[in-house]
Amino acid sequence: MMNLPRFIRKKELVDLTIQLVQTATENPPGNEKGAAQFLKPIFSKMGFKVKILLSPKGRWNLIAEKRWGKGGRTLIFNGHLDVVPAGDPSQWKYPPFQGKLSKGRIYGRGASDMKSGIASFIHALSMIDRSKIHFHHGAVILHLVSDEESHGRQGMGFLTQKGEIHGDASLVGEPTDLHPVIAHKGALWLRMSTFGKSAHSAKPHLGVNAIEKMIKLMDRLISLPLKMEHPLLGKPTLSIGTIQGGTKINVVPDRCEIEVDRRMLPGEKKEEVLGEMKEILDSLQSQDPLFQYRMEEMDFAEPSEVDPEEEIVKIGVEAIQEVMGEKPSLRVFSGFTDSRFYINQCHIPTLIFGPGDTNQIHTIDESVEVEALVHAAHIYALILINYLSPHR
Which of 22, 55, 187, 367 is deepest in the core (most CB within 10 A)? Predict the structure, then answer.
């Protein structure tokens, strides 16, 4: 293999990352338009066919495609353009959308999650151009999408529904500390309400206290045994994230509501989890005729997992080992990613891999190490070469 690192242009890579961080794409509201408009001419200049697809809510999704010859395999790269809100800028060491370079790190919202992954992959494409490597056949497609931070309905969900996803393997450039990630948990978000009857709190026996009914439900949820276990992801989890109830201290509350985050393992089915929840609710109702409830599904993201024996995983592991000097361990995410759309809906084997520290995700003073960008660009270039030219 030729000496790929000599085709890295560190300043160019750093500048691109900074420019992407400076393009604020907070979700909500999800103003990914600026980032898509910034990237479109870059891809056109590199010989990619570029198209913009607007979701039903007007969110911008960019697809860039480059083909060599006829036939061959197609490798997809996925990156999300949106970032979580920066919060109070005064809490940050540097303004969150300045893209400040300091002591070998780039600071800013999205620096780790995941403007750095997008910049590193684009730089890997530039490295291959400079190296004059020519693929006889095959293709690279980039899906740079909106809305990932809000379950991806306007991004990957939209592209999947439109039938826009075609390829043989994919890379999702989320921050993974430069380790290969092969699975993640799913999330089922539920709203549960209990109902009562209001009365003056001086005469509580004349009413039905919805908060007291909710306490019984929460006790059951908290003590629910979650027995299934995954060798890397561990057990499922259940967390009660919000609670609201009552209107005034001297009024017996006639309603109480909680929001529940149930994290799911690959192999768990949404219908089974919903059934388990309904069983608890019905059991409480059978024990107490005054227990009235409602359960609503707020949102759902499936868990996903790729077989570690898939070729894209093996090629990724080999590339990481070549650049970093040691064989990496396979890792998993507790949170969900857009990889689930490729794996579950499109049946495309997918590796999650990118620069950026997982401990930096969604934090104040989010940052990424410049050396991680350089390593990621080198690793992405190796993966591209080895996947599109497997018999070089």
Answer: 367
Does residue 28 have a cis peptide bond before it, meaning omega lies within 30 degrees of 0? yes
- What sign results for the dihedral spanned by CA atoms 297, 298, 299, 303? negative
The model's pTM is 0.92
Q: How confident is the model at residue 360 (pLDDT cuts 50, 70, 90)?
A: confident
Q: Give the tokens for residue 6.
A: 């000599």
- Is beta strand 367-369 parallel, antiparallel or unpaired with respect to 105-107? antiparallel
Of the candidates 316, 277, 380, the residue with the CA atom closest to the CA atom of residue 180? 316
Q: Is the pLDDT of residue 193 over 80?
A: yes
Report angle CA 76, 330, 308 to the nearest 5 degrees.
Answer: 60
Kindly state the DSSP code that residue 335 receives in the 8-state scheme: S
Q: Which residue has the tokens 């006889």?
A: 136
Q: What is the rounded CA–CA span in Å between residue 380 and residue 382? A: 5
**Residue 1: pLDDT over 80:** no
Residue 165's closest CA among 145, 135, 188?
Answer: 145
Residue 392: pLDDT over 50: no
